[in-house]
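Re: [ENG-882] Designed sequences occasionally contain unexpected residues at chain ends

Forwarding the minimal case from QA. C-alpha cells:
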C-alpha cells in the first residue's frame, strides 16, 4: 500500500511534468536547459528559450548558481537572462523584469566596454557583453527570478 506522502509526490510529479518541457532538467529546486552545441546572439538565445517554453536564466541564490555550474564547461561562455538594455546599469531579469536576485560579477565587471548590455557567464563569473556575440545559453522553465 502506497503512503499518503508517496501519493502526493506522484501527483506533484505528474503535475510538474505537464508544465515543464521534457527538455528541461531539474537542478536544485528549479528546471534549466543548457545549450551545449549551438551558439547564438543574446536575442536569438532568448527567443530559443521562449520557443522551448522558458526564459534565459537568472539565479535565485549562490547555492542555485553553484549547483548549475557543476553542469557547465568552464571553457564555454553562456548567455544569461540578465541585461541592462533599457537603462544602463539597471540590470533586470528577462523572465521577471525585476533586478536579479544573485549576480557574481568578474572583478572588472560590469564595465559597459563597447556598449555591452547583455550578461554572459564564463568560468563561474558574469560579464556584461555585446548582445551580438555568439555564445551558448542557459534557459529556465519559470519566471521566478
Amino acid at each position: 500500500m502506497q503512503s499518503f506522502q508517496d501519493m502526493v509526490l506522484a501527483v506533484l510529479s505528474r503535475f510538474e511534468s505537464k508544465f515543464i518541457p521534457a527538455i528541461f532538467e531539474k537542478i536544485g529546486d528549479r528546471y534549466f536547459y543548457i545549450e551545449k552545441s549551438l551558439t547564438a546572439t543574446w536575442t536569438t538565445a532568448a527567443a530559443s528559450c521562449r520557443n522551448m517554453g522558458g526564459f534565459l536564466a537568472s539565479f535565485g541564490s549562490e547555492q542555485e548558481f553553484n549547483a548549475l555550474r557543476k553542469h557547465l564547461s568552464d571553457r564555454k561562455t553562456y548567455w544569461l537572462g540578465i541585461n541592462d538594455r533599457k537603462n544602463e546599469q539597471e540590470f533586470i531579469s528577462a523572465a521577471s523584469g525585476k533586478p536579479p536576485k544573485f549576480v557574481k560579477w568578474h572583478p572588472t565587471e560590469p564595465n559597459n566596454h563597447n556598449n555591452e548590455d547583455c550578461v554572459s557567464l564564463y568560468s563561474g563569473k558574469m560579464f556584461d557583453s555585446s548582445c551580438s556575440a555568439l555564445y551558448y545559453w542557459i534557459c529556465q522553465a519559470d519566471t521566478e527570478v
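QA comment: On inspection the terminal residues look reasonable. DSSP finds three helices and eight strands in the chain. Proposing we downgrade this to a documentation issue.
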